[in-house]
Amino acid sequence: MKKFLALSAALSGLLLATECPASAIELAVGQRASVPVTSLKEIKFRKTTRQQFDFSCGSAALATLLTHHYGTPVTEKVVFETMYANGDQAKIRRQGFSMLDMKNFLAPRGFVGDGFQQPLDKLLDAKLPAIVLITDRGYNHFVVIKGSEDGRILLGDPSSGTRSVTRDRFMELWANKLLFVVHKFPGKVAFNAADDWSAAPRAPLGNGINNEQYSQSLPKFGPGDF
């Protein structure tokens, strides 16, 4: 695994993504035209912030939540550097970011975020996105619940992009049943958006996460209302 302390410097040197390449298409009359082509991979990360390292899913998930659901654009780099600078750095180096780190990042920005132990249906009825920790093959990974429809849960996965899984599969992956939710927000919240669903094929593709080693720690807040 890449050294944790090297992340901040490495993130500073990331290059912006280049424009989508153009492909030549043969028209019926024999003419050729160049049109931009967007890959499926690009589509899947259009509304989900991609993590740059195998241990940065927490900062990428929070960036996804703010940027694509609460209309507050922020990069993974900013979230990571701020949470690391203001958190328990020794603990973060050992265990990764926690929901408490996320809560502390949100507070000075006017957001109230907390962890709740509540049924999934309560979240879906409230039409609120949430950050959750899933566990697959022994690895822990933060993702964002983006919506639900026809027995499927729509996830913003910092590792593999926007994807959907069956509700039964999600309940298997969601072991600790904790929801990290922004509440008491007065503005409009994006949830279950058609544009998000367009990036998630409704077939049993990639129901697992990448087999990378994630290590995240979550404090256990008490139950509460959304």
From TrEMBL:
Sequence ranges assigned to domain Peptidase C39 in this UniProt record: 51-181
Coiled-coil regions, chain positions: none
InterPro entries found in the cross-reference section: Peptidase_C39
GO BP annotations, alphabetical order: proteolysis
A Pfam family per the record: Peptidase_C39
GO molecular function: ATP binding; peptidase activity
A cellular-component GO term for this protein: membrane
Organism: Telluria aromaticivorans
Protein name: C39 family peptidase
PROSITE patterns assigned: PEPTIDASE_C39
UniProt keywords, alphabetically: Signal
Signal peptide residues on this chain, from the entry's feature table: 1-24
Lineage: Bacteria, Pseudomonadati, Pseudomonadota, Betaproteobacteria, Burkholderiales
